Amino acid sequence: MKDDSQILVRVRNLKKYFPIQEGWLINRQVGAVKAVDDVSFDIRKGETLGVVGESGCGKSTTGRAILHLDPPTAGEVLIDGKDLSRMTTVERRKFRPRAQMIFQDSYASLNPRHSVGSIIAEPMVIHTDMAPDKMRQRVMDLLEMVGLNPNHYQRFPHEFSGGQRQRINIARALSLNPKFVVCDEPISALDVSIQAQVINLFEDLQKDLGLTYLFIAHDLSMVQHISDRVAIMYLGKIMELTSRENLFENPLHPYTRSLISAVPIPDPIKERQRTRILLKDEVPSPADPPRGCVFSTRCPQVESICTRTAPPWKEIHSDHFASCHFV
Ligand SMILES: Nc1ncnc2c1ncn2[C@@H]1O[C@H](COP(=O)(O)OP(=O)(O)OP(=O)(O)O)[C@@H](O)[C@H]1O
Ligand SMILES: [Mg+2]
Q1: Nearest Cα to 19, choosing from 27, 9, 10?
Q2: 218 CA distance to ligand 2 middle (Å)
Q3: Does the domain made of 4-227 have the CATH classification 3.40.50.300?
């Protein structure tokens, strides 16, 4: 593990279970969806940690649990050395501005009846006592920072394109100078031609403002350019975590190898030689995960130990973590 002073977010044994209830008059808990099941990792200051996995594997829940938007079921999360679960409501409210989240659906997260100016100003209205003229200047600066016309603050969300609306969301998320931003599939809903521009914006803002990102995506091709390190999630657990270079050059986990085999290669000769590793069956339900290794029902290299014992989360090489009996 690297020197602790380099770590901004520290996550240990994080779990988030959603109770499954049954009954008509009296609800009784009959099980739990293990959306996030014992994940541990660090996010270093100024880095982008990509989180990749299929739909339903627990990426958004991880992001929300880290920020305490949905309090974790168990485990420890420290952001800048502070444990949100030990804070009082007042302390947590004071802390909120330092960690923000940006969502996939740019339109749903913007109130259509409010002007862009008031949408971006809202966090400042709640958390600061800034004077109105100062606040308007700050809104205009933020609009400019995200590549929009600062004079458009009186316009409404429907007057902007999808990419521009995502820029508005970014401006609002940055209004209180956060250190850490969870970006939950912020480019998935955008046209491919716009995706690269928004990724560039995220990168420029990171450089200029010293931001740290947890960047969620459902496929590797979306995070491979922006991430310094990548965590591969499957059914509530992290299968592998390492630098982007290591992940592509020396993938250790069979699930990572199957995901990499799905990423197109720009070189046409290599692209023709690429063989996809297709997995059998469907992803099991997180309400009833397989015994042993959660990936065992689909793993091309499964052995009998995999269906009996869960593999430990291990640092295989320096800064290269994986959870598989055979690495
Ligand atoms: N509030 C909730 N109540 C019950 N179950 C939930 C809740 N939120 C998420 N889940 C379940 O937890 C699991 C993980 O969901 P999550 O949204 O974190 O997945 P995801 O990886 O973000 O998927 P996607 O790529 O589709 O966004 C899913 O099985 C989902 O149905
Ligand atoms: Mg999600």
Answers
A1: 27
A2: 8
A3: yes
